[in-house]
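Recap slide: Sec-independent protein translocase protein TatB, sequence and predicted structure.
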Amino acid sequence: MLDIGISKLMLVAGIALIVIGPERLPRVARMAGTLLGRAQRYVADVKAEVNRSIELEELNKVRREFETAARDVGQSVSRGLDEATGQVNAALGSGSDGHDEPAPTYEPYSWDSSPAVPGPVPVRKNWRIKRSATPQWYKQREGVRRHVQSGAARVARFRPPRRG
């Protein structure tokens, strides 16, 4: 690795001052700093890309292991289910009482796709329009407000009478 100390940096700066000149030295230093910053950003981007690719490979490896484990579990469960079904069918077949009808085979229960409990009721977006179609006599009987009232008017309307 390069062993650059303060004395060597001062020597390089002195030579640059002599060769480039004091008028152009700030511009050249600024350009050198910009190029150095770009190089550092490029190196950082390359490092980040390499790290991302390594992480992606690790994630793919874990995903493949998980898929194979899930496949193995599914196969073992289906194998066990097939064995149990075969044993049940064999037991039902051996216990026949001399009739020539074949023993019934039992298949796994298939669940209904319809839920037993209905889901949440969707919110009506235009409830004002649908509510206005309600007859006036029904609104009056149920006590539905038909006119907008201010808070003060509502208080005055329902204030108990004064005794006096």
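Residues 122 and 130 are 14 Å apart (CA to CA).
The helical segments are 6-20, 25-94, 127-132, 136-142, 151-158.
(End of recap.)
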